Amino acid sequence: MAKTRITAVLILLLGIGLGFFVYKSEISHRNLAPGVKATGFAKYPFKLGLDLSGGTHLVYKADVSKIDPTDLKNSMDALRDVIERRVNVFGVSEPIVQVQDGGFSNAGEQRLIVDLPGVTEVSKAIEMIGQTPSLDFRTENPNKEKAQNATIGADGVVKLDANSQYIATNLTGRYLDKAILEFDQNTGEPKVSLQFDAEGSLLFEKITRENIGKSVAIYLDGQAISIPTVNEAITGGKAQISGSFTPTEAKLLVGRLNSGALPVPISLISTQTIGPSLGTQATAAGVKAALIGFMAIALFLIIWYRLPGMIAVLALSMYVVIMLAIFKLVPVTLTAAGIAGFIISIGIAVDANVLIFERIKEELRNGDSILDSIHHGFKRAWLSVRDSNISSMITAIILFWFGTSLIKGFALVFLVGVVISMISAISITRIFLYSLNIKKKNKLTGFLFGSGFSNATIKTAHAVSK
User: Fold this and answer.
1) Residue 147 domain-assigned (yes or no)
2) 206: which residues sit within 8 A by CB, 6+ positions away?
3) Domain span at residue 92?
4) In a shared domain, residues 96 and 166
5) Domain total for the chain?
6) In this structure, are 35 and 167 located in the same domain?
7) Is residue 236 domain-shared with residue 335, that is, in the same domain?
8) Beta pairing class for 333-334 and 47-48
9) Are 291 and 328 within one domain?
10) β pairing state of 55-63 and 266-274
11) CB neighbours of 391 closer than 8 A, spacing ≥ 6?
12) Tens-of-pLDDT digits for all 466 residues of the chain?
């Protein structure tokens, strides 16, 4: 019994500590002066999604008509990563960049969703994404007739059409590892050196090996910016862009390439701005709903189950602070749907307690002692609690796997909540009840018996306990 009570005290102290952490971290973050780096507790605020904090929602159409269907997923994943890196350069807090799956009218079309919390200027948000260049390498067109398309300029010089002279290869900005600004030691001319990743290095070596003595064009945003001649196969995945760059232009190009060259072209098709006032209202409404729901549940448990109800409310309070601490430490980006999932998971936690307490009451009616009723109640209610929670987990996993971003936010919080609530109901509530060491009816344990018990029933249970 001493060990059980020590465990109960430690759990209680842990709950108090987590509650202090949640409160202190939020207060510290709110009192943080603008522009000051967060330290200590202030480093752990709640991460709010676009619908709660306000910001910009952008929908881009990706033209994948020239992408091999077998490489479609990899290309879109690469595009997502590139855009995410680009946005992170601007210091946007918790950007969400994701590929939208689903059938579109155009088979060569995919969509990319970009959520930028805190960025309410659409033009600024579009500029962040739009400045990312599209880089690709092209080889000479084997169709000589088409390649010989020529025009005569105003100066009388014959000019070949570069776009018809070169054809695309699989080597794009998707495989770019980094770009470096260098200067020619003899002329001082700025140059941009490119370093490809392992897969890109192999592609570049293959392209140069197959085009020795020919030219390979480097295109940026659809325009040929460098057309070097290949003298030998180039290994190591290094290429170089030279031309009429000023140092400023070369530095800008390096920054843009390192932010991410787009593997596929994109175009903006939809924008939506959510003001911070709407986000604040949604947050306040969600918190209010959670508080009212919790208070109503706590009142019901205490009135109906008396002492066990008080224990359940204590365990439920610990469940809430554990969840809030997880939201801060992981961290979990909270949306309105996520808050709804959290509130529902509180109901799941209460459901487990109701099953257990009703089972305890049945054991008491059958004449078991109070301690035996508690033991048998938890043991026999476990199967029902386990099955109901597993079915909820399966539902949450299915929703997360197949749902949209909105549904995934709900499903993730709901899944975590169900797991924690099951531990809270089975373990924490049981330890607290056992720590009271209830053996017979007295002024304290009289509160154990809720509605549905007569004095005869209480006396019977008391007699059996003796």
Assistant:
1) yes
2) none
3) 55-273
4) yes
5) 2
6) no
7) no
8) parallel
9) yes
10) antiparallel
11) none
12) 788 888 888 988 988 999 899 888 888 877 777 666 777 777 888 877 777 777 788 888 888 877 777 878 877 887 887 777 767 666 665 677 888 765 544 555 788 888 887 776 667 667 767 665 677 889 988 876 555 554 444 444 434 555 678 888 888 887 888 888 888 888 888 888 888 888 989 999 999 999 998 888 888 777 777 788 888 888 888 887 776 678 887 887 777 677 666 777 788 888 887 776 666 776 777 778 878 888 888 888 888 887 888 888 888 888 889 988 998 888 777 777 888 888 888 888 788 888 888 888 888 778 777 778 888 888 888 888 888 889 989 999 998 888 776 688 788 889 988 888 888 877 888 888 888 776 655 554 555 544 444 444 444 444 444 4
Please report where in the chains the tokens 């020795």 appear, as a residue. Answer: 212
Tokens representing 56?
């910009």
Last residue of a domain, one of 273, 297, 328: 273
Residues 263 and 293 occupy one common structural domain: no
> Which pair of structure tokens corresponds to residue 90?
């601007």
Distances from the Cα of 76 to the Cα of 79, 87, 390, angstroms: 5, 16, 34
Are 259 and 283 part of one and the same domain? no
121 with 85, same domain: the answer is yes
What is the total residue count of the chain?
466
Closest CA to 388 of 361, 411, 356, 341: 356
